[in-house]
Design brief:
The structure is a single chain. By secondary structure, this protein is mainly alpha-helical. Helices cover 59% and strands 8% of the residues. The chain folds into two domains: 4-113; 119-192, no CATH class. A two-stranded antiparallel ribbon has the order 1-2. A two-stranded antiparallel ribbon has the order 3-4. A hairpin with a 6-residue loop joins strand 3 and strand 4.
Length: 193
């Protein structure tokens, strides 16, 4: 259970061990989203990354009613994430932050699964025979593609951010594969969705 002492310690220092207790507590949207938005506003922009990532996790798990109630806080946290995105130094941090932004938009699928880009693989069942399939995103059996408007948007953003390797990996995440068991052709990203 979170105490006011823990929240105060975290709000006073972005490096405080209290943040670990907050992440583990998963106290829920009603308590934490307004507090996270206020706390992030008091931090330097470079210290907001963990806050917006935690907020993304909370929003993905929130009910529609909770999202509506905290719409202003969610918008503020998303704006903080958008400010941070151009400043991250590596592709992994970029993906984590972009996933948080999708979560803050209410995208329950890609707000949870985009970090498959960092894992370098995706595990999906075949839509026809339900065979569990694991694909490395570098697998040459994947036909690159961009199977949705979101895929195209993410790809364009990665290219504009100068992240060509990430943009290429996105074409694999949203590419086409053929099930080795039943020969059904399907989109990896479509099957995740």
């Amino acid at each position: 259970m979170l105490t006011q002492e823990v929240l105060d310690a975290a709000a006073a220092d972005p490096g405080s061990p209290a943040w670990t207790a907050i992440r583990k507590a998963q106290a829920g949207v009603p308590l934490l989203l307004p507090w996270l938005a206020r706390t992030a506003a008091g931090f330097d922009s470079r210290d907001r990354d963990g806050i917006v990532v935690l907020a993304g996790v909370l929003v993905v798990e929130a009910t529609n009613e909770e999202r509506e109630t905290h719409r202003a806080e969610i918008a503020r946290l998303k704006a903080f994430a958008a400010e941070l995105l151009p400043t991250v130094s590596d592709d992994e941090d970029y993906v984590i932050l972009r996933q948080a932004m999708l979560a803050l938009d209410g995208d329950e699928v890609w707000g949870t699964w985009l970090d498959a880009l960092n894992a370098g693989e995706i595990d999906v069942p075949c839509p026809e025979c339900d065979e569990p399939l694991l694909y490395a995103l570098t697998d040459d059996t994947i036909e690159p593609g961009l199977s949705s408007p979101l895929a195209t948007q993410l790809h364009t953003e990665a290219l504009q951010a100068g992240r060509s390797a990430l943009a290429e990996t996105l074409t694999h995440l949203f590419g086409q594969v053929t099930c080795p068991e039943c020969a059904t052709r399907f989109g990896l990203g479509d099957q995740v969705s």
